[in-house]
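Inputs:
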Amino acid sequence: MKNNIAAAKASLSHLDLEEKDTAIKAASRDFFWYSPVLKSRLDHVTADFVVRPRNEAEVIETLQNCYKHDVPVTTRGAGTGNYGQAMPLEGGCVMHLRHMAQIKEIHPGRVICEPGVLLKDLDAACRDHSAQEIRMFSSTWATATIGGFIAGGSGGVGSCTWGALRDLGNIIRLRVVTMEENPQILEFRGEELARVSHAYGTNGIITEIEMPLAPAYEWVEMFVATDDFMDAAGFAEELANEDGILIKLASVYEAPTAHRYFQRVQPYVDENTNLIGLMVAPHSMDGFHTFLERRPYAKLIYRNDDHNWARNPGPVFEYGWNHTTLRALKVDPKITYLQARYRYPDHLELIAQLRDRLYPEVLQHLEVMRENGKVMFAGLSLVQFTSEQRLDEIVKLHEDAGAMIFNPHRYTLEEGGRQTVDDRQLQFKRKADPKGLLNPGKMIAWDDPNWAYDRMYAHPKLQDAQ
Amino acid sequence: MKNNIAAAKASLSHLDLEEKDTAIKAASRDFFWYSPVLKSRLDHVTADFVVRPRNEAEVIETLQNCYKHDVPVTTRGAGTGNYGQAMPLEGGCVMHLRHMAQIKEIHPGRVICEPGVLLKDLDAACRDHSAQEIRMFSSTWATATIGGFIAGGSGGVGSCTWGALRDLGNIIRLRVVTMEENPQILEFRGEELARVSHAYGTNGIITEIEMPLAPAYEWVEMFVATDDFMDAAGFAEELANEDGILIKLASVYEAPTAHRYFQRVQPYVDENTNLIGLMVAPHSMDGFHTFLERRPYAKLIYRNDDHNWARNPGPVFEYGWNHTTLRALKVDPKITYLQARYRYPDHLELIAQLRDRLYPEVLQHLEVMRENGKVMFAGLSLVQFTSEQRLDEIVKLHEDAGAMIFNPHRYTLEEGGRQTVDDRQLQFKRKADPKGLLNPGKMIAWDDPNWAYDRMYAHPKLQDAQ
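Outputs:
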């Protein structure tokens, strides 16, 4: 199968087509560079051209023409994912959905929109309309799109209350276009959502989204400091277990993360300060203060609505989730990270154990999540990178101890996920992308059903470095 | 201390004072008659007069004059409590707060109101104002007041999401008037709230309330049927553990409760049907259907927005919480009940064990609650009443097995609660009610600090039966 880039481009020349090399290069990159492993593998990867459809009809036209000419299509939003989700491994077409940013309907408890709308803009519209907001968002809220979040994300700010994006009820409906000779338009609800949510656009393109909403409040953003790390972790967990106190974020940063990497926080903490980042509903602040006063070990050092800090630290959620790693990377380019899940009920024990073995090579960064109704932790640990081999050892050490690792140093769905085929995604890809042109190289099960997961998967058709 | 009823009445004659015997008798009764034990003890109890203050100044005037003349004051809302909370054991004055029903301010996430407003009216106002509603309410929503709920309730519809009323954050602020020579007006927040919430008005009168709000939705009300009781309990628990599905109610009724006692449900169930009553947010219905389809043992037999039942069964929450007992009592006057707490993580096991020992003398009625972040059950079991002795045996059997019983066949705070003094309430009563005139006989610790809880407490000054 030999693709015909020139013919595909020609057939799409009436669309918003990007042909400038620098712009194509820029649109071919996501935040894969968080990982030194992915950076060494994917830094050269680039699309042949970029198309920016204005509506669903143009998405269909793009898919149809690329299908005809056997051109791979990798779809992206803002490209803030850090598993290399949006890297066009075989080149071809990058389809950028930035123009598809319409918010179509807002109702009590739900919104209908196109995939390219920024999370920030979606929240602003829902707030203006009826004091609502999306239940959860990635820390890249200001720049990321809702479509990218659904296709490439798993949870974030708000998951301490609402659980993960894939949990029942956190996506209502997705409208999906297939890549066939005659693309189909499908509406997915319920069990069908799992086919395409967090599938990196490997088996269909999301053109419309219906999401649940929560009430929007003027969240009070705070930093709380403790001397002891496990006190900080306990504080975050116990707060999340207070059923009457509504929170949107509870992050825990092991010392010296705050002092070393959080520049505007640095004057107010020291090397030994463990930090907790919080978002609490304003009408829960009385309850929060009572909770705080019961824990004399914890000191409230900042709240966004009442502080005398010389420089405003900005949104507290921009210290949490993947922004923690981003801030650390800016100060120390040798930092990388892991994504872990420490499950109820052994989560605190497991974290203590891993800390004993790995501090200070690994610094704990925890995010409170709910899973199956229980408060537990996502871990986005900061890792001092020395070698790929050592990184693999650290991953294995976590797994052997009982933590689940979503390895962010891998670019396939399986390796970045649960290391098994998601059969619902694979089955749907067989129907929706018979030529295997959608975001190729990201689903091992498609390429090599017998892959043994004994080493890092290397996509055989990965673009050669120049 | 000899009280002077006549002098107190005379001093209050310019207020809305009730002196008609039948009206006084009516205003002296709450729902104590749910319990055959309380019925035998309290049926004759009646106040000497009833006063209905129009505002806080009149509350103060009432308390001041009754203090002067040593007249007990028992404060009530709608009188829908069923622990005898509002029964004036020593006679004297019943202070009825029905005129104090002003809703003062509504803000995002909170409302400020007077105690006498009906829960129903409070919700209507918050909904009209900004699509909000109170987080939780008793099943007597249509007739009960917010002040009565706070002074005499512990949770209800909404507690499956928000926990109990006493949990941090579920009451924001209470304004309280004391019964002293010169009554004080106090504002309580945080830890101070525990002094007067669920204190039956024994140590101060609540004159203003600030409560948190949740978004108001057009809740979809449903009945789901199962053949097996433990399937029904598991269904309710698992649904409540779905972090992305927003619910307001999950009740479980053991067969044959629905068939025997729920008249409008009866044609659609049989003797062996276990029933689940649900309120689910409309935007969570897709998630709910997915959840339901995964459980083929569960059949959706009714939803309020789409059914062909001959007679509308009314609000589903009016089958839950204390309304279950009420419905059973209407059919079978020999029915009474218990209030239990089955705590995480042994709740299901404990319920199964009690069922094995007590069916059919005791029929299980469970309400999903959250406690310390975990889904568990409140039990409001239906009991075939035979004798007080047998009822006490059943209570003991529950306690020995590990269930916590809030005995609804007792009229004191301690016996209906955790069977220990709430020292915060007692300490505050010493300051706020030095003569012990507020709702006398309801706080054992005040009357008899050395009470051993070895038998039912009998208030020595309980009014004699005529």
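Remarks. The CA atoms of residues 241 and 375 of chain B lie 7 Å apart. The two ends of chain B are 22 Å apart (CA to CA).
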